[in-house]
Amino acid sequence: MADDMTAHSFDDVVRIEEETSSSQTGRSKPVRIEEVARLADVSPITVSRALRNPDLVSEKTRKRILEVVQETGYWSNPHASALRSGRSSIVAVFVSNLLSQQYTRAAQACAQVIEANGLQMMVGQTSYSYSRELTAIQSLRALRPAAVFLTGVIELEENRRMLRDLNIPIVESWAHTRDPIDMLVAFSNVDAGRLAATHLANRGFKRPAFIGRGGGRGKLRLQGFTERLSQRDLPLTGSVVVDQVESIENGRSAYRKLQESGVSFDSVFCANDLLGIGAMIEAGAQGQRIPEDVGILGFGDRSDLAALSPRLSLVGVDTSQIGRQAGEMILSRLNGEEAPERLCVDLSLLQGVTT
Predict the structure, then answer these.
(1) Quick check: do 33-76 and 88-187+320-345 share a fold?
(2) pTM check: above 0.85
(3) Distance of CA 100 to CAs 173, 245, 352, Å?
(4) Whose CB has fewer CB within 10 Å in the chain, the N or C terminal residue?
């Protein structure tokens, strides 16, 4: 784990603005009870008593605390108190795709950390969809979890506002953004693309192509990929944009589309684990020799993809490390301890037999 953020490139995630009234605008960070106590000039325990057992606090003090609560939008989270008192609570985890082992591995690692400390995990899937993401976030109001872990970053400003308003620990991941909602443990997608281009160039490939999602993290990986290719005086010979990545079949069909486009390519960077596996299977099914006829470079969890046969070369990330760190951040925050706002995981190039 590298916590020196200057060592990694930022991912400039596009924020999607929506019209909201001034009363809907969220704070940049969740309000903590210590801040309410400071503004009201009382102790945190007095704030807690005023909100939970108002008869124990004088009317004058209670009124001052309630004024600060109203001004700051503070919300007293019963699950945080439940954790401190030893009762179980829920951590909501939303993954981009349950079929992708990189996300489920991160969720599993997070679960191992929090379940050892009396918390339970509830998992949902957003499927790279803004509408499903919105539905998931809206469900949190009724669920009232202790914390939330997301295998991604939230792009819609309205969804970011709703998460802030929960006033609970929020951990985003998978993109090294400059402005997380609360906490972030991630890697640089731009650097992932650069590492991929450097590897293909060093292996002697001259006509690389790209397969990946057109938005979000796929776009960032393509950005880094094309930047580094240009620096190495290599062209991007072709690309196929995949709107949805739901299975290995998406990778197979994307590879066929790349061939049907008529471009002459000798290698492909597949910016997703399912796409890389699918492209490798499709190339093999067509009788192409890998890497003699075409080199294929994937991206994903290094412990999963490197075990494939043939062994896929990939830009790898330890997604279990992301999940463990997210769980530790959540526990620290719920226990009233300091937690790092951002951590960045290092990427690595794992040489297989496909490049």
Answers:
(1) no
(2) no
(3) 15, 9, 20
(4) N
